[in-house]
Amino acid sequence: MSGKVIVASAVSAERKLIADILRRAGFQVMAETSDASHTLRRIRSLYCDLIIIDKGLDGGKGSKLAEIVTQDQLAAVILLVDNDISHLDRKGHYLIKPVSSEKIIPAVESALWYWKRESELRARIRKLEEKLETRIVIDKVKGLLMDVNGWSESEAHHFIQKEAMNHSLSLRQAALLIAERLADAKRKS
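^ that's the sequence the OP posted. Answer follows.
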């Protein structure tokens, strides 16, 4: 598995160690940063897959940065911590220091796998929501056509399909166009 990674730690030696381990394992280290604001700018400009953030970055702002990245769904996050964190703080992936290749590689692979899976699920949800919204629009317009013209549901659906083909539109766009025309005709009468 490969991925684009940003390493954020105020400790230069730690940053370099993590970056070297990741590069040897085949990951592309896009940036090494030492403060939260620079890290956030790099995250937003480099479109990486994973951010490894030291919890102590900028005196504890690493946790806040990890929260922002997670909420904005910018990338997967691994939070580096000095000791085990309480179960209440476990909102994502974390790794207890000191860092070693035996610990970090499986953590990175796991975080990337979960990030990819979550991204795929979000995309599927968006598609399903769009399909549902389209279905609702088409059904409403079919109902309007049935009321106005006395057509059956099949006739109304066929009319929407025909309008979509005639005007090179999607069914949803054709339905919205028809609804607009029906609303205009109703206002004029």
